[in-house]
Fold:
Amino acid sequence: MRHNRAIMEHMPTSRPKALVTAALSGPGLVLLGELADLVIDSWLDQPTLRIYNAEQLAERVAAEGANIVIVESDQCGGALFERDEPLIAVCSCRGDPNNVDVAAATAAGVPVLRAPGRNADAVAELAIALLFAANRRVIAADKDVRAGEIYKDGTIPYQRFRAWELAGKTAGLVGLGAVGRALRWRLQGLGIEVLAYDPYAPDATSSFEELLAKSDIISIHTPVTEETSGMIGADAFAKMRDGVIFINTARAKVHDPDALVAALTSGKVSAAGLDHFEGEFLDPAHPLTTFDSVVLTPHIGGATYDTESNHTKTIADDLCRILAGARPVNIVNPEVLDSR
Structure:
């Protein structure tokens, strides 16, 4: 904070105005209030889900007279970058600002800021939760207790819920970004050997084929790209160890759901934990809902108060730098600074 205050001493006197549709909190929010007049209208404070499309956001920004935009999921493009007076910055409170038309922002000379690693610990913790819950069939066991069926169908719980312990097993991480790294040390602390495949991370030293063949647990932590879309399909599942546990806290497009259902049915995959579905919805009649060894959560990996505080501070620090004429740390299009 002392460094930020030193930077602020060199900032222009005209006070900017920021439209904030993201959820913000923590010390970073105090700093933002010192930097700009804030119009805060968080999407999390709405009675129903509200995500502005590009036209709606541009209209809202114009109506507020804002010259800084801080969003999380709203679409930033079109008229937002066609203003007579360019925005000071567009800030996406995401690691991957895929809700921003970066090319249009760059053409308009608008810096795009992001918040990498904001939810790394949160998602890693959920991956651990899904792993244990799926392996030990915690949800099914809880359901039996609540239904008074501890001795369901004349069996005892020890017969129905036995599982292999995870200590001593091998986990394979597909993707070694901030979340993958946060999960790696947690798994190692549990006594699990960790392999990683990521062609863009020098310390991910396993090939994809090796990871599939050697892992008792496979956890997905890669963004959706042309390379990764559908990469975990029938062929990949066939190459996995029998009884593998499959975890995906990234994006559903990385795996083929039909292939996963087939692998669960055959026993190739013994358990699974999933935190994302296409269109943010899974049909209650989908076959995945029929397996008591599958744990399904509605895209809540990053849903912690810490995630909110983390991205607030990251964005506030970089906005402070931009307003003072310094170079921001987490800028997506640094070339716009050179043209100013």
Remarks:
- The first helix runs from residue 2 to 8.
- The radius of gyration is 23 Å.
- The chain has two domains: 2-118+304-338, 120-296.
- The CA atoms of residues 134 and 293 lie 5 Å apart.
